[in-house]
Design brief:
With 347 residues, the protein is an alpha/beta fold. The protein has helices at residues 2-7, 12-15, 119-131, 149-160, 173-181, 199-207, 256-262, 264-270, 287-294, 299-318, 322-345, and strands at residues 26-33, 37-41, 46-50, 62-66, 74-79, 85-89, 97-102, 106-112, 135-141, 164-167, 188-192, 231-234, 240-243. It has three domains: 2-79, Nucleic acid-binding proteins (OB fold (Dihydrolipoamide Acetyltransferase, E2P)); 85-251, 3-Layer(aba) Sandwich (Rossmann fold); 256-335, Probable gtpase engc, domain 3 (Ribonucleotide Reductase Protein R1, domain 1).
Length: 347
């Protein structure tokens, strides 16, 4: 059981939180979370756990559970402290985070051909990934339907910088091997992308069998919602991946540092401005305006960087202390990334 829990992602960060737990409780990882119930994997089997009012978990959480609940269900003893939470801004007028997945190491941002790749959505996804301290990987599916997938890849690489981008075609063993290499044993990944992008198909291909239901894309190219909940799937080599429902818009829930990491090329130029408080709107010595003039910086990229910075600054004003909480999450996740790297380096 201990070996299997490690393959599910259990490590010292979580075991240190269960040292004082009594013998009736045991650690488990959330596979599917619902409002009043969740399904967890305790290293032996999938068991259902009743949730009381105020108890909330998402796929990827580590919890302590005990038997004795109603209708044969287990009870939630407590949720362990999260190393990180991949979250988006909730839809609607309420200013709050909506948890997508907990304790993930890699965020796969999935877009599909033949429709034009939504670069702004990718940039928002990158900010969410950096905020969670996770490694972002862009996956472009259905490359067989594109006129020039290699050209699209080059354009994205030129705009987004040193981000891993994987082209996927049907029955693409090379592409699957690239994805597997980004997700070593004990690591956790999550898929984000619109409906019809092929996320569930990717999960099935990585798992080696059909674990998630898939559907045909409509004639207009728009996807259908096949996955209706977030679900954690164990992969054959000892990693896990979380499939998620399709999303059209990604509300950013991040700090300024995550936005700046996403637009590293812009921030490097902005740091060369004569004045630290330069607004890049014509001030003397503005390196950004100079880069726009000589074509080394895209006006669209600059505009999106400024828009996201305004968005997260507004959130910070509405929610005092948000930036500090997000920073602590990033620090924990960076330590985890180093641990995973060193463990696999010495295998």
């Amino acid at each position: 059981m201990a070996r299997r829990l490690m393959r599910l992602g259990l490590d010292g960060f979580f075991t240190s939180q269960v040292a004082d737990a009594d013998e009736l409780v045991r650690p488990a990882r959330v596979v599917v979370g619902h409002r009043d119930m969740c399904t967890v994997d305790d290293g032996i089997d999938h068991v259902r756990v009743a949730l009381k009012a105020g108890e909330s978990v998402v796929a990827g959480d580590w919890v302590l559970v005990r038997p004795g609940g109603p209708r044969g269900l287990h009870l939630l003893h407590r949720r362990l402290e999260r190393r990180s939470l991949l979250a988006r801004r909730a839809t609607g007028d309420v200013e709050e985070a909506q948890g997508v997945a907990a304790n993930v190491d890699v965020v796969f941002l999935v877009e599909a051909f033949p429709a034009p790749i939504n670069v702004h959505r990718l940039e928002r996804g990158l900010a969410l990934a950096w905020e969670a301290g996770a490694r972002p990987v862009i996956v472009l599916t259905k490359a067989d339907l594109a006129d020039d997938p290699g050209g699209t890849l080059d354009d994205l690489a030129g705009r987004l910088g040193a981000i891993d981008i994987v082209l996927m075609r049907p029955d693409d063993t090379e592409g699957l091997a690239c994805l597997q290499a980004t997700l070593p044993e004990g690591a956790s990944g999550v898929l984000l992308g619109p409906s019809g992008a092929g996320k569930s198909t990717l999960v099935n291909a990585l798992a080696g069998h059909d674990t998630m239901r898939t559907a045909q894309v409509r004639r207009d190219g728009k996807g259908r919602h096949t996955t209706v909940h977030r679900e954690l799937v164990e992969l054959p080599w000892g990693a896990v991946i979380i499939d998620t429902p399709g999303i059209r818009q990604l509300g950013v829930w991040a700090g300024q540092s995550a936005v700046d990491a996403t637009f590293d090329d812009v921030t490097q130029v902005a740091n060369q401005c004569r004045f630290a408080d330069c607004h890049h709107e014509g001030e003397p010595g503005c390196a950004v305006q100079a880069a726009l003039a000589d074509g080394s910086l895209s006006a669209d990229r600059l505009a999106h960087w400024q828009a996201l910075r305004r968005e997260v600054a507004w959130q910070a004003r509405r929610l005092p202390g948000l930036e500090q909480r997000l920073r602590r999450q990033q620090d924990r996740a960076v330590m985890r990334a180093h641990e995973v790297h060193m463990r696999n380096k010495h295998r």
